[in-house]
Amino acid sequence: MSTTTIGDIVRGDAEVFPPYLYEAYRSTIRRAPTCALVEVPLTLSELTGPGPVISAVTPEDADLTRNAGTGGEAMGQRIIVTGRVLDASGAPVKNTLIEVWQANSAGRYIHRRDQWPAPLDPNFLGIGRCKTNDAGEYRFLTVMPGAYPWRNHPNAWRPAHIHFSLFGNAWASRLVTQMYFAGDPLLPLDPIFNSAPTERARQAMIAAYAHDVTEPEWALGWRWDIVLDGPDATTFEDREIRGQTLGSDPRGV
Amino acid sequence: MKHLTLTASQTVGPFFHDCLMRTDAACDMLISDTTEGQRIRIEGRVIDGDGAGVPDAVLEVWQANRHGRYNHPSDERDLPLDPGFTGYGRIATQDDGKFCFTTIKPGAVPFDRRRLQAPHIAVAVLGRGLLNHLYTRIYFDDETLTASDPILQRVPTERRATLIARRDSSHPGREAVYRPDVAPQRDVVYRIDIVLQGANETVFFELAAR
After folding, report:
1. Catalytic residue among A163, A174, A223, A239
2. Is the pTM of this model over 0.80?
3. Does A69 touch chain B (CB under 8 A)?
4. Active site residue A20
5. Which label site among A83, A124, A152, B65 has the fewest CB atoms less than 10 Å from its CB?
6. Among the CATH numbers 3.40.50.10860, 1.10.3720.10, 3.40.50.1220, 2.60.130.10, which is that of B17-195?
7. Tell me: the pLDDT tens digits for B124-179?
8. What is the C-alpha separation between A30 and B50, in angstroms, rounded?
9. CA nearest A42: which of A169, A198, A176?
10. Is domain A51-232 in CATH 2.60.130.10, yes or no?
11. What ipTM was estimated for this complex?
């Protein structure tokens, strides 16, 4: 990448998370905060969250090749995307909702604001969801998304990617990110991918081709693990804010 | 014990609506006709550094019920859960940056063993141009605990107002359970804008090391 102005306001681990201002991605310029973030401790409000209670999924939701409901199958290279969702200590994040969205195999979203001249696929919505199992595993069947142009800079193309949205167990573990594909020649040219500040952080967003996931005569396999921030299992005890004593503590009012 | 590399955040981009705002995923009505509490509507705009409305942002909100109880397994306090109330909402901004959602006023929740937090709603702001979501909160200007809230105390005095929704006195409201036959203009309305950048920039939080 050519030189770009990079802001110093970052939320989360500055070795991993992008700065809010990353000038090469132009939309950050008038949307990045300019005042330092105010550091606050985790309270019950951030240690809880909607992750455990939002759950409406059906098995069909995880099959993007057929979930358009037309009876037809999406065009493109069929792929399986699977992996595990973990917390930073390596423990699986169980039973958590994952929502995904992506362009079709020609690089077009069904979104009304995406009007570039690539074909829409009537059998592909490009949206899916599933929940992780008890081992933290997820699995989607979809088609390989295409690259697409955007107007960020001359001849700008987004590399193939799938958007992922995850809740984890706590408000503090919320994550929306993008999964990329190993070997994509557009990655070094993409300011959004390159907004992650370190090679380690960028590599962690790239799915690996996984021949053991590939199913013969059917679909190519990609594996990508996701590591969520958030409180350790011990945090509640550490901070002594769990249990009944707190709500009834007469000093608390 | 932390050792794995966290997965970095990336922007939701401009094309999230079909997924994140599908009818069973969007939620600007957090309550049902049986939800206990004071029904309120919160209105405002998400504004960028040019003062323009942000048409492609998402607010996610998380709050306790009227008793100050979170619908989450880690909140084990002996307080009533409201079965019809999760406390979670997801609201997309409109083309002019406006947002609006309807909920109930949350109860106070604990800060530590001695102190309470004022009633508040946790907010995450996502959007095109936001490489990482922003955490903020909505407090209420008519809650006496707001003045002593331990989180607000950490915010520079001159910036606290950016986190406090103002009750709109042109909407008298009522202290009652929601009924569908009651016109929505009788809700208690609070107003707050979320300013991403510039004058009156909203306070955004870094959640401290665990």
Report:
1. A163
2. yes
3. no
4. no
5. A152
6. 2.60.130.10
7. 999 999 999 999 999 999 999 999 999 999 999 999 999 999 999 886 655 445 55
8. 7
9. A169
10. yes
11. 0.93
